[in-house]
Design a protein that fits this description.
One of its GO terms (biological process) is protein folding. It comes from Aegilops tauschii subsp. strangulata (Goatgrass). InterPro entries: CS_dom, HSP20-like_chaperone, NudC_fam. GO terms for molecular function: unfolded protein binding. The protein has a domain of 88 residues: Sandwich (Immunoglobulin-like), CATH 2.60.40.790. The chain is of the alpha+beta class and 142 residues long. It contains one helix and seven strands, in the order βββββββα. The termini are far apart. The longest helix is centred in the C-terminal third of the chain and has 19 residues.
Length: 142
């Protein structure tokens, strides 16, 4: 019943926000990001977040920072455009409606990225949104 983290995502990243325990020096916070796993804890103690990720990430471009008492973990998606239902396997997955809304948001983000001169802020999808990774030839990477 306690909130452990909040999160959001873009086409390329999943961001996790974790409020850190009070009165613990930030230099004692430890975060380990692996391709399919994340651990957060206090050095010398078992991690209090120790879970498999929903999907694999690129470890060489994933990182963590601490600012204003909050740990911010940036996970670089291995599959750009893939809609994650949750960062952590088995934890707080999106319901089908929210998952569809998130996929629509990512599709609009993809359109905006591929067509910077156009404004998609008022665009809407009717019906089920296609997968942003595969729609119209898929996502183009540089």
């Amino acid at each position: 019943g306690q909130k452990v983290f909040e999160w959001d995502q873009s086409l390329e990243e999943v961001n996790m926000y974790i409020e850190l325990p009070k009165n613990v020096p930030t230099k004692l916070i430890q975060c380990v990001i692996q391709a399919g796993h994340v651990e957060v804890g206090i050095r010398g103690h078992p991690p209090y977040l120790n879970h498999d990720l929903m999907h694999p990430v690129k470890t060489d471009s994933s990182f963590w920072t601490i600012e204003d008492g909050e740990l911010h973990i940036t996970l670089q998606k291995r599959e750009k455009g893939k809609t994650w239902a949750s960062p952590i396997k088995g934890q707080g997955s999106l319901d089908p409606y929210a998952a569809d809304q998130e996929q629509k948001r990512l599709m609009l983000q993809r359109f905006q990225e591929e067509n910077p001169g156009f404004d998609f802020s008022q665009a809407q999808f009717s019906g089920t949104c296609p997968d942003p990774r595969t729609f119209m030839g898929g996502i183009h990477t540089d």
